[in-house]
């Protein structure tokens, strides 16, 4: 029996949410075995950094993560967070990865490998194929392409002299060519922008050559005064907006989605510019481009839901909130999503990163929270049992399969 043949009885959507294979539409690479202990494990359930991360152990999300990992590892019920860390440190890394991915029921991962630290600490995206039934695909982070690949700005600035309109045109044309090459790469499933982290989601839909040239000259001054040979970060709004507009054009031409980090993130984000509502003019002016709003846009979930309902080209991802929010918070977010968002435009992801447990918790907690919300919807006669089953399948697998044009068939991942 395949997942498509699953009988739709009174508990069928519950069974589906327990066992149905999932496409993880947004995640990041795992640490290498050599670096498995390099980062504080408390980051599993918190975006805080430095001293602020010390307080994560006092949050409900980390308490829930401890409880769920105790059950996953088969530890005594009252094992402490330190017991959890000691147990995972002593376990063979490959065994730990296989346990987490097997329990997560993840069939395919779409990996953004542009996260800072990946090159130094993490595995390549294809390495993850050993734990999934379908090949891993890449999500290309466009700001990294604009900054690092072929040292684009460094190469342009190295010619000497103050940048002029021709340099700006060369930057734009070269960026377009690099993005087109990525779009034509069969391993690439989509693009991602982190403009939310850089200068905010209030991206101008209209080019401003004067502001762009001024921004290029500011970047040139930063290049001239820098003391290291590292990548030149795009810090000016006009250039970041240009990168996003070029990305949207290339994505439309090649029919691939563009993910946007929205809402929930670390302290680098200016929260007031993290609402997806800022993207509305850009969405309206790019109807041929598919937008995927990441992380449920928390705490701006209702704004995201509005955009998915009003614009055909907008989809909503529910990643990272599992396990970053408490159980009640997770259910509240799902309920807000389903207030207005068409259910065929919702996708799940783990936002798994660094630790295999992040993939497991992202799946296990999402399935648990969604099960509770759908059960309430059925009991309230808002959904039939058959409709709840369809919603569960779409969120876990079929919507991502369609949006990213993966061409996959769901495979049974339940051990026999």
Account of the 3D structure:
By secondary structure, the chain is of the alpha/beta class. It has one domain (3-33, 54-403): TIM Barrel, CATH 3.20.20. It is 47% helix and 9% strand. It has 17 helices and 8 strands. It has helices spanning 12-19, 60-73, 81-90, 93-104, 118-121, 142-147, 152-157, 165-183, 195-198, 209-225, 237-254, 280-285, 301-310, 321-324, 327-340, 356-379, 385-403, and strands at residues 22-27, 106-112, 137-141, 188-193, 258-260, 291-293, 314-317, 346-347. An 8-stranded parallel beta sheet has the order 1-2-3-4-5-6-7-8. Helix 12 (280-285) links the parallel strand 5 and strand 6. Helix 4 runs parallel beside helix 16 and helix 13 packs parallel to helix 15 (327-340). The chain is globular and about 65 Å long. The two termini are 12 Å apart. This is Amidohydrolase 2. It comes from Russula earlei.
In short:
With 416 residues, this protein is α/β, with parallel strands linked by helices. 47% of the residues lie in helices and 9% in strands. It has a single domain (3-33, 54-403), classed as Alpha-Beta Barrel (TIM Barrel), CATH 3.20.20.140.
Order of helices and strands: HEHHHEHEHHHEHHHEHEHEHHEHH
Report the CATH architecture: Alpha-Beta Barrel
Strand order across the largest sheet = 1-2-3-4-5-6-7-8
CATH level 1 name? Alpha Beta
Q: Which segments are poorly predicted (pLDDT under 50) over 5 or more consecutive residues?
A: 1-11
When the domains are counted, the total is: 1
Number of helices: 17
- Main β-sheet description: 8 strands, parallel
């Amino acid at each position: 029996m395949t997942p498509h043949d699953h009988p739709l009885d009174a508990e069928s959507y519950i069974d589906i949410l327990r066992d149905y294979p999932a496409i993880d539409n947004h995640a990041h690479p795992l640490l290498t075995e050599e670096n498995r202990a390099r980062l504080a494990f408390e980051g599993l359930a918190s975006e805080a950094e430095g001293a602020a991360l010390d307080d994560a152990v006092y949050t409900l999300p980390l308490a829930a993560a401890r409880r769920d990992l105790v059950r996953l590892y088969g530890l005594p019920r009252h094992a402490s967070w330190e017991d959890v860390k000691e147990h995972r440190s002593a376990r063979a890394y490959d065994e730990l990865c296989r346990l987490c991915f097997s329990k997560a029921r993840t069939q395919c991962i779409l990996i953004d490998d542009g996260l800072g630290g990946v090159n130094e600490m993490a595995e390549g995206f294809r390495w993850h194929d050993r734990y999934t039934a379908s090949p891993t695909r890449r999500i290309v982070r466009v700001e990294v392409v604009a900054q690092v690949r072929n040292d684009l700005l460094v190469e342009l600035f190295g010619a000497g002299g103050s940048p002029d309109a021709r340099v700006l045109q060369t930057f734009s044309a070269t960026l377009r060519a690099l993005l087109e090459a990525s779009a034509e790469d069969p391993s690439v499933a989509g693009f991602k922008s982190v403009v939310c982290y850089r200068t905010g989601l209030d991206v101008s839909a209209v080019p401003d050559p004067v502001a762009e040239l001024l921004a290029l000259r500011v970047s040139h001054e930063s290049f001239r005064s820098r003391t290291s040979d590292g990548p030149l970060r795009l810090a000016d709004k006009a250039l970041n907006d240009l990168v996003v507009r070029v990305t949207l054009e290339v994505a439309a031409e090649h029919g691939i989605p563009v993910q946007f980090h929205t809402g929930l993130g670390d302290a680098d984000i200016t929260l007031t510019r993290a609402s997806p509502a800022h993207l509305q003019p850009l969405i309206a002016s790019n109807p041929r481009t598919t937008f995927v709003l990441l992380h449920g846009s928390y705490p701006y979930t209702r704004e995201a839901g509005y955009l998915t309902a009003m614009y055909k080209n907008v989809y909503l991802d529910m990643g990272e909130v599992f396990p970053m929010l408490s159980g009640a918070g997770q259910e509240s977010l799902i309920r807000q999503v389903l207030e207005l968002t068409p259910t065929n435009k919702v996708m799940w992801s783990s936002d798994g990163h660094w630790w295999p447990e992040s993939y497991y918790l992202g799946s296990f907690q999402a399935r648990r929270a969604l099960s509770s919300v759908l059960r309430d919807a059925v009991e309230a006669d808002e959904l039939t049992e058959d409709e709840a089953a369809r919603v569960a399948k779409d969120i876990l697998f079929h919507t991502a399969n369609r949006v990213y044009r993966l061409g996959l068939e769901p495979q049974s991942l339940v051990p026999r």
